[in-house]
Amino acid sequence: MKLIRSSALALATVVAVLVPTAAEANSWSHADGTGDVYTAPATSTAPTPAPTRTVGDVVGSTIRHKRRAVVLQLRYLDLQANSEFNTHVFVIRTPSMRRVVTLVGNATFPGGRVRMTKPTRPKKAIACRIAHRIDYTAKTATVVVPRSCLGKPRWVQVAMAGMSFTGFTSSDTMWIDDALSNGTSGIYSPRIFR
Questions:
Q1: pLDDT digit string, tens, across residues 68-98
Q2: Against a cut of 0.90, is the pTM above it?
Q3: What residues contact 84, with CB distance under 8 A and at least 6 apart?
Q4: Please, which residues have CB within 8 angstroms of residue 181's CB and are 6 or more apart in sequence?
Q5: Hey, what's the signal peptide range on this chain (predicted)?
């Protein structure tokens, strides 16, 4: 009987140490390798590796599912307010919906412009007060999406990518780096619970 109680106590201790608390369970970070940027003509769907491209090379991402908002951040090897359209894309999946948050910045509007859409209706913006910040010194792009705009979900999953465009014609160039893979596959994070 004493052995059973000791084993149960040991098991309870291990579980208490290994299971994340509520404060830890709502955050997730991922480190992305460098040199995994791809390039293509802006109108193409067949990208090729561009391992020497540093601007827009995602090196990490963070998701924080807070009480009132979902905070999403991309960290870059290099980020510049140049003539390119530097685009930070966050695709949010919840139990009941998907939303795309796009933050675009360049030399003309270095602070960026943000909008939320449905994946099926990318030209129609959804009204939502999304806070955003592009920090060229820290090389980060951050959006703060109110949970009310997402239906106050129990969990979120997020696919993230950094994209740059010189323009939108067939002679222009696009670069892309998926934040969660070594390619352009659009992989989602695990579920981040609130």
A1: 999 999 999 999 999 999 999 999 999 999 9
A2: no
A3: 55, 106, 164, 165, 166
A4: 32, 36, 187
A5: 1-25
